[in-house]
Design goal:
The structure is a homotrimer of 299-residue chains.
Chain A (H helix, E strand, L loop, with lengths): L20 E6 L5 H11 L7 E6 L7 H11 L7 E5 L10 E6 L4 E5 L5 H6 L3 E6 L15 H14 L9 E3 L13 E3 L2 E9 L5 E6 L14 E6 L2 E8 L11 E5 L4 E6 L4 H5 L6 E6 L13
Parallel strand pairs in A: 1-2, 1-3, 3-5, 12-13
Antiparallel strand pairs in A: 4-5, 4-6, 6-7, 8-9, 9-10, 9-15, 10-14, 11-12, 11-15, 13-14
Helix pairs in contact in A: 1-4
């Protein structure tokens, strides 16, 4: 049996061999809000619960960025509980949910698209509960901190073994809100793709996977091309496997550690070079007039 | 029996059910200094000690900001040891102390006001010891890192079960330095209140609680008003419960997750809109000429 | 028996008394990459492994900064596994290694100088293995994330008790790449020293230790002097033990918590005052025309 990234599931050891694990992703920043979320999940339980901070630096209210990070990271974790809170609609009528995936991961958070791309990559939703009237909600003075008052306690109870049906009301798995993600498009000029994320190194992760999402296969390694952003210009890139496949300061297009195509700049930031960030469009073309004479062109 | 925020204390499980816990707050930033504090507390012990980073992003030397974050967070933790280090006077004659509160929390840090507001909220100080000649101090080459050389080892020993009287010399609990906090004032124009904190979302937390600290009760939900900062102008706000009670870009005055009044901007930063930050004064007035026509005025 | 900073090793308790510990330092930033490194190390093991984030804020690709932080922090940790990843050459022919030191610490990372200064301070390398063909490497789509795909799994296996010889091929300990560090120089004007690091407080840590690296002993405490940076000027300093030994806004030269000489500014940033940062040169002179009239000069 293999996991969501194609590796044997037993590399994570058997169930019960460790403390249960909760992973967390929020837009709270590293600091007291994230700490209170953690405390609300871990300390009501009488037994030890392990904790992993996936990311608290999601841009404020950026549900898509949070969703992509969950999708990118959760397949590398053993079956665990993940609490995700990027929740600009806190306190409104948006649903709060918990769900189980085919891989046995349990996800807790707002039903605003945040959890869905990860759930899909983890084999899809097998159980979904609405936390609206959850008996685990802590009723405090405010309605603005569901991380501490609802999602944390629910995640803690689930990690300690409480069944999903005890923390909320079962609803149709297909009712989970779907997050729309941009698809690449082939044009006369090349391939239009949207920037999904910029990582810590200034690498641009594209909404474009290795198989070009049905647009055809990639040219062989070493192929050259040009990339153009909305601000015009055209920068050369080489199709490679690692940063060092580009000349110093040059761009490399590569399959990143999550299987997506990404543009990195050797010893620099591709985001800065191309003045591009999340949601910006880039046009990629292989071959053509190549300023980079490191290798033969592949049209 | 209820805890400092009015909930049953047994929600944290019984004593001894988990590893002992140390929570930490400093102005060290996330990085090697905070890691060395943690190591100095956890690894001399022969048994496992759990660790929670409350906040290491306190503004450099800002004792008041650290004190407010401790007061805001510790009531949500089970009885534990908390080490707080915002200590511009390190190496001088300022006292170093450890104390126990009525709730059973143990606080360790400099006696410069940092620990006192939290201790007061946790039922007051029942034991206080001066760490000046503590046998646990590590004598290294420097006198500038009491987090690693004194507070960490003391916190670790206390978490492992060492009595307070073994880590320092007992002194009068009332001798703990009190931190002065600004009080609100009613004027002919409205209520003058000081900004205590700006959170990660740009929300301004005011030195003003739900009961207006004796200035009278709040108008009903939905009431409108105006807030003026030192830079003049006057921005409309609505008294609500959550961010979505304001129109897009509008201000909401609400009781925050700690019971304090706070001003937030829907889909934006109240701090940026009002050009205000910690220690700035704001004047709030309910009723008057309201630019927001979402609801009736309440004078 | 004493540890690398001269304290009894038994202050860390005996072996086996706690969960095994992995400490981590990277230039990944706090977020998903650091979380995936952690997950790759901790969760394949069937037993609990403790984790300490030393620092993920190393400047991108700054091997020297990472090496200095490892050297500064590891002597304060019990024998443990440390994974260090500042690796601009990932995916190239640079070696990946794991090593054991005389103190029993195990270090894992690229062989680019990152690990060597810490290993030297920890008594030197007693075993070294090349991870090039390690059976623990995870073969994924990319060659750009050795933290997750190689160093993490290796660190986890070593923490769980796997012998070094099972994770790589034994090579000559002396073949570990040495990191060159700048040495101080005595000139007619004083002592030229290079800034090694700027810490969170703006303190400049110098490549100059208490014994002046053979240049002679320090003047007595209270001695005054001047420091000049490449941008000219000359700022007075006092030789002290803590920040408060300088007047407000003044500079103090002191032996820092790692035994190095450092320049701090009381209630401010020495780095900002002197417009200096890592790799900049400073010239220090004791005595001379002192603008600070707090005490007698010592020439």
């Amino acid at each position: 049996m293999t996991d969501a990234v194609g590796r044997p599931t037993d590399r994570f050891g058997g169930p019960g061999a460790r403390s249960p694990l909760i992973a967390a992703l929020t837009d709270y920043g590293i600091g007291p809000y994230a700490a209170l979320l953690q405390a609300s999940a871990r300390y009501p339980a009488a037994v030890g619960i392990d904790w992993l901070d996936l990311d608290h630096g999601v841009a404020l209210g950026d549900v898509r960025a949070g969703a992509l990070t969950l999708r990118r990271t959760l397949p590398h974790l053993p079956p665990c509980v993940c609490v995700g809170v990027v929740d600009p609609g806190v306190g409104t009528a948006r649903r709060a949910v918990a769900l189980r995936t085919a891989t046995g991961h349990v996800l807790v958070g707002p039903d605003n698209g945040l959890l869905q791309p990860a759930a899909r990559r983890l084999g899809g939703v097998t159980e979904l509960v609405d936390l609206g009237g959850s008996p685990l909600r802590i009723h405090g003075p405010a309605r603005t901190f569901d991380g501490r008052d609802l999602f944390g306690p629910v995640a803690g109870a689930l990690a300690a073994g409480t069944p999903l049906s005890d923390v909320g009301v079962e609803v149709e798995p297909a009712s989970l809100m779907v997050l729309a993600l941009p698809a690449p498009r082939r044009t006369v000029e090349g391939i239009d793709a949207t920037v999904l994320e910029v990582d810590h190194f200034g690498t641009l992760v594209l909404a474009l996977d290795e198989q070009l999402t049905g647009l055809g296969p990639l040219p062989p390694l070493g192929a050259s091309g040009r990339v153009r952003s909305a601000l015009g210009g055209g920068e050369a890139f080489v199709l490679g496997q690692t940063f060092a496949d580009a000349p110093h300061g040059g761009l490399v297009l590569f399959v990143d550690s999550d299987g997506a195509l990404a543009l990195a700049r050797r010893d620099g930031s591709a985001a800065a070079l191309l003045h591009s960030g999340p949601a910006d469009a880039l046009t990629l073309a292989f071959g053509g007039d190549d300023a980079d004479d490191d290798g033969p062109l592949v049209a």
